[in-house]
Amino acid sequence: MLFTKPIFTLAVTVVASTMALNVAKIADCPALSARNSSAKDITDLRIDDIKVVGALGDSIMAGFAMMGVDYEGSGILNISLLSEYRGNSYAIGGDTNAVTIANFMKKYNPKIQGASVLSHLASLCNGETCGFPASLYRPLRDNLNAAQSGAVAMNLDYELDYLIPRMKSYILSTNYQKDWKMITIQIGSNDQCAACGGEITEHVTADAYSNYVEAAINRIKAEIPKVVVNLLGTFKVSGVFPLSAGQSYCVPNGFLENKKECSCSSSAENMAKMDALSDAYNDKLQAIANKHKGQPNGTFAVMYSPIPIDIASFPINALSNVDCFHPSLKGHQWIAKEVWNQMFLKSNEKPSLMAFKENLSVYCPTANDRLPTA
Q: N or C: more exposed end of the chain, with fewer CB within 10 A?
């Protein structure tokens, strides 16, 4: 009888770690029972096997403008108009208590490396041009978040020029050759907005977009060992314009306004073109992922995660009041939960539409869950 309570406690822990749960916050999830052996290959990865996270993308991944601005209290010159809050980026933010995928993963591997922290002035790519001084990385804050505001798919190679050596620099806390890594890629919003004319129009066709994304993935495969790429789909950017039209929440500031940031917003015809392009991009991304499914004994895979966000379902404060184009902190937190919740689903189980839900619950992975890499 002396051992009844410890045995009962152990039994409850084991059962909880194998039962699917949905909770209000990741801290409420039960711990995973320890693995008996390490992952045998890319098809056997649990979430706690990942030791390093990285990201490629645009201003959304960089957390641009998410904290908004108090126009009455601080005026148009507030630095938040031009800031990236990378520590709260939905995919790779690492600030304390931030609701992000990287922090969800940290619940299961407290020593995970690579998450971006804090904030800084925006680092900007402009079409074909990425480079000093506009696109300046801050390695101690960016860490392995290589996203650049303004980036399009053709800029992914530039981002990898930063990400790969920065990842190799973690020699004191990680083993570059042996540790499992996850790199999240989400790109395509600026590509849609550039489709209606301009200097890079030929670089944002579905074929060009696909070629740039696949080139980045092939480079990752060639230069980064033991990695799964979480390839996120695109969403239809056009939805922000009817949502924000006439909203007093969206305060004009003269230079950062959604219609100025996206020239394709000028007509219904152009916005339909953007929507069609988003669909075409997603078809290409799905095809790329299908070519790079995980294989037995393999160490590389691409898993496709659609993000068919129904922007019409957003409350207006899910967008930043800086420009009513980028997601706010509230929007980032919702996206983090939505993407996390589908990370453990097979492709035929993933959502066809993501409608905003206040207080969305968080999935607790079980000891039997594996990342759907195959």
A: N
